[in-house]
Input
Amino acid sequence: MASLLIYAAVGIAFFWIIKFMIYDEVESRLMVEKQDFEAYVRSNDTWSNNSYFVENKIEVVPIFGKFKNEVAFTDTLISNRYDETADPFRQLTFYTLIGGSPYRVAIRKSMIESYKLIEAISAAMIAFLGLLFVSTLIFHRVLSGKLWKPFYDSLARIKDFDWTKNKPLETVRSEITEFNELGDVMEKMASKMQHDYRSLREFTENASHEIQTPLALINARVEQFIQSKDLGENHTYWIEEIYHAARRMSRLNQGLLLLAKIENQQFTEQEELDLSEVALNKLKDFEDILQHKDIRLTVQSTGSFRKVMSPALAEILLTNLINNAIRHNYNGGELRLESGPDFVQVSNTGNPLKSDPERLFERFKKESTGAESLGLGLAIVKQICDNCDLQISYQYHEPVHSIRIT
Amino acid sequence: MKILVVEDEKGLAESITDYLSREGFVCEVANTFWQADEKISLYQYDCTIVDLTLPDGTGFDIIKTLKKIAAATGIIIISARNTLEDKLKGLEIGSDDYMTKPFHLSELNARVKSLIRRRNFGGNNDMTWKDIRVNLPQRKVFIRDAETTLSKKEYDLLLYFLSNIDVALTKESIAEHLWGDNMDSADSLDMVYSHIKNLRRKIVEKGGKDYIQSIYGIGYKFTAP
Output
C-alpha cells in the first residue's frame, strides 16, 4: 500500500517536472522571438502582419489610451485555421510602441507537440511504474513464500510443541543462517523446558513420597500402640491428637500435591464428558451422608453440560463441590444440583459467609475453624476450572449459597 | 500362611509384620530389591506386600518376576504414589490390590485376608466366628443360624470387624473403609457411630452377644465379652 502511494507520488512529480521544463523551454523561445520582434520594429519602425512570420503567431493590436507596461505568459486555445479544433498555445503578451502609437503584441507558440510529448512520457511512465509495481509484488510474494517457508514451518512446530510430552522440538533446517540460529535457540529452550518440567514433576512426586512414608510410619505405630491393654484416658487423648495431626498432614500433603499436579498440567488425558452426569454419579457416593444429615436433594436438569476435559479432574471437581455443599450445610438443609447445556450449579443452604466472597477460592481460606476442614477443597476446584477453561462464580441469596460452573 | 513384606522403610516393615503376626500370619521382610528377589525365588508365599519405590529397584519388577515363578501368590502394592497410571500399571502386570500410603494396618490386614480367602476358596466360603456366620458369596449374615438383614454398609462394617478380631480399630479407619477417603468431614465419624449402633442392635436382637466394645477416644474393638 505504501509503495503504491510512493509510486503515485513519483509519477505525479515526474509529470510536473516534465511539464515545467517544457514550459520553461517554450517561454525562453518566446522571449527570444520577442527580442527578434523588437529588433525588427526598432530597425523598420513599422510592422506588417504578413511579413516574416507566418501562421498568425504574432498578433499586433493597436490600443488606445494608457497601457500598463507588463509582460505576461498565458495559456490559450486558438481555433485551427483548417479544421474546427482548438489547439493549445502558449502566449506572450506585451505592450510596445510602433511608430509612436501603442500596440499590444501577442506572440504564440503551439503546445500541441509538447502536450503530445507529455502524454507519451506520462503513458510510458505509468506503464513502466505499474509494471515495476506488479513485478515487485509478485517477486515479494514468491520470495517470502520460499524464503520464509522454513520459518513458518518451524513456527507451526513450536506452536504444536507440548512440553509435558517427551518428544523433543525439531525446527526446520534451511540455508538461512538466522533461521537456523533461531531454531537452535528454540530447541535448546524447549529441551530445557521439558527437562525442568520433568524434574519439577519428579520433585513433587518424590517430595510426596518422602513425606507420606514417615506419615505411614506414624500411623502404623499409633495403630500398634493402641492395641496395648493398659492405656489411660490421658494416653488415649494424646494418641488421638497425634493420630489426627498425622492424618491431617497427610491429607494436606495430598491436597497440595494435587494442586501442583493440576498446575503442572499433569492430567493430560482428555475425554468428552457430561458434567451433569458425572455430578449425578458422584452424588450416589454421598447418599449415606445426605441421609445422615437429613439433607434434601433436588436435581434439576435442562440439558447436559458437555465438556472435553480430564475425567479424573472432572470427578475431583464435582466431588469437592458436593463435599463443600454438604460440609457447610446444616442438618435438615437442602442441596440442589442444577444443570443445563452450558452450566452446572451446586447450591446449598448454609450460614452466611463470614469472610469476603472474593477470597472464597483462595488456599487455606477456611470458613469453619473445624480441624477437619483443610481449606483446599475450593482452591482445587478453582485451579481445575482455570486449567480447563471453565468459569466459576459464587452467589448468595439467603440462605442459599450457589457455585456455578460455566 | 506366609507373607513377604517388601518395604525399605524398616520401621514400617516392622509395624506391618508385628500387626500381621498377631493375626497368625508368618511374615518375612525384605528391605531391598535383591533381598526380595532372592526370597521369592527360594520360598513360596501366599501373599506378598510390595512397596513400589525401593532403593535398588522398582516393585514392578518384583511383581513381574513373581508372576512368572509363582502365579498363585496374592500381591498387594503399597505405595506413596497416588497416580492413576501407577495403579493401572500395577493391576495390569498382575497385582491384586493397590494401597496408598499412609494406610491403616487394619485395612491392610482386612485386604490381605480377603485376598487369601479369594485365592484359596475361589471366594466361595463361609466366615464363622463365635455365633456369627457370614455367607460371603450371597452376602448373608446369620446370628445363631437365624438370618439377619444388614444394610450394605453394616455388612461391610461387620466384615471389617471379623477381619480384625480383638483389634482396636480407629473411627477414622472404619470411616475410610466404608466411604473411601474423599469423605473427610466430621460427619463421617458420626455416621460410623450410627452404623455401629445399628449393627450392635441387630446382632443383639438375634440373640448374639454385644461384641462391639467402645474404646474411649479411639474407636471400637470387636471381641468376645
